[in-house]
Design a protein that fits this description.
54% helix, mainly alpha, NDUFAF4
Length: 206
């Protein structure tokens, strides 16, 4: 349905599109071409001086140079597709070193030199670990002097970062100890517990 409506619309609008095509074309061609923006007065003055001092330049620019034209006729480019040869019997050289590349411990290659006032991940972990072992000896000021960082930075590191600690939950004693469980297991079963298996056995036999 949509295609039919589109075809009908195009057929109806075609005479209006073709109406006075020649007149409209002539009207467009008769329009003046857009003029370029004027040059700056200093630029215009400089160009006028060059044209005045070298009038032959404008003539040579508008004149066809037969010498250059003949040279262009002699210039041509030919291309030939070279079929690449497939090497036969040549083995690809293997690498001289055949060892596995070790992955860095912290996921990136550690720099050989640390800038003053900065810390590497390894140094930060050592700093935090020392403080957790002995917070009095390795306080923020002592660690800042050792690693040449600002004391405020050392305080923030020790405040907001901690190393992993193992937490062992306390042993909770249950109501039934092992000895109580042994006593309960040694007690004779009740009548209900002994009758139920017999009933199930009779059902299976029947």
């Amino acid at each position: 349905m949509g295609n039919t409506a589109a075809k009908v619309t195009k057929r109806v609008m075609r005479p209006f599109k073709n109406f006075a095509v020649e007149a409209r074309t002539e009207r467009i061609l008769e329009k003046e071409k857009p003029t370029s923006a004027p040059w700056h007065p200093t630029t215009q003055k400089r160009i006028d001086e060059i044209i005045k001092s070298n009038p032959h330049l404008m003539e040579e620019q508008n004149k066809k140079d037969e010498t250059l034209s003949s040279r262009l006729k002699e210039v041509y480019v030919t291309s030939h597709d070279v079929v690449p040869g497939i090497p036969i019997g040549k083995e690809k050289p293997l690498p001289s070193e055949r060892k596995n590349v070790l992955q860095p411990e912290f996921g990136y290659e550690e720099p050989a030199r640390i800038t003053k006032g900065k810390l590497s991940i390894r140094q930060a972990l050592i700093l935090i670990g020392r403080h957790q072992q002995d917070s009095i000896k390795y306080n923020a000021l002592a660690l800042a002097n050792e690693y040449t960082i600002h004391p405020r930075l050392a305080e923030n590191i020790l405040k907001h970062f901690k190393t992993f600690e193992y937490y062992k939950p306390p042993k909770v004693k249950t109501g039934i100890e092992v000895k109580d469980y042994i006593k309960l297991k040694s007690l004779p079963a009740s009548k209900e517990e002994t009758i139920q298996p017999q009933i199930e056995d009779n059902k299976m036999k029947s």
